[in-house]
Amino acid sequence: MKILAIGSHPDDIEAGCAGTLVKYAQQGHEIHLLIMTEGAKGGNAAGRRDEQLRAVEFLNPKSLTWGGYEDTKLTPRMNDMVHDIEKIMGRIGPDFIFVHYDDDTHQDHRALSKATVSATRYVRNVLFYEGPTSKNFSPTVFVDIGETIDRKVSMLVAHQSQVMKTNIEGLSIVDVVRATAMFRGIQGRVQFAEGFMPLRLFINI
């Protein structure tokens, strides 16, 4: 299968679904990443690109594409963004799409989620992942990441400039992501899990 994960900024995909992507990669599936901005508002753009490249060494994706958009300036009314996502999908032919959930306090996450819903209107499997700024996220699909949680954490730590930017005193992004994975694991009756909300999900029997 071909998997496309889409994020607004460097480290979004890692926080949302890296454990699942690593499992897919280990099983021989193609992983493709699309990151719409360099996250320049959250740090030096070149530095964040370098961090992203170090992070994906743990995943070895088939492709990593930069969207070229300006951080904090994404909007669901940007038809260009819908068309750009469609072009990437046309090149890859993904079987699964992972993207932000649209109820989120970050405007870029909301906008990208809505644009992706439009761009993927003919894609069978589209799953929303959660991040630290997601709201009202109630997953109904779970992936056991007990075997890949450490790889997920290593990918996040590669984003060194962002590790302590949680706005929660004394907690790093690693703390937040591990706690989330444990909570979703409890819901899914395993130790660690990533949770997803489906736009569409086909169970092929």
Précis, in short:
About 40% of the residues lie in helices and about 20% in strands. With about 200 residues, the chain is an alpha/beta fold. Helix 2 (about 45-55) links the parallel strand 2 (about 30-35) and strand 3.
Characterise this structure.
The protein has 205 residues and is of the alpha/beta class. The chain has 6 helices and 7 strands; from the N terminus they run E-H-E-H-E-H-E-H-E-E-H-H-E. It has helices spanning 12-26, 45-55, 79-92, 107-119, 149-157, 173-188, and strands spanning 2-7, 30-37, 63-69, 96-100, 125-129, 141-144, 193-200. A 7-stranded mixed beta sheet has the order 3-2-1-4-5-7-6, with helices on both faces. Helix 3 crosses helix 4. The radius of gyration is 15 Å and the shape is globular. The two termini are 16 Å apart.
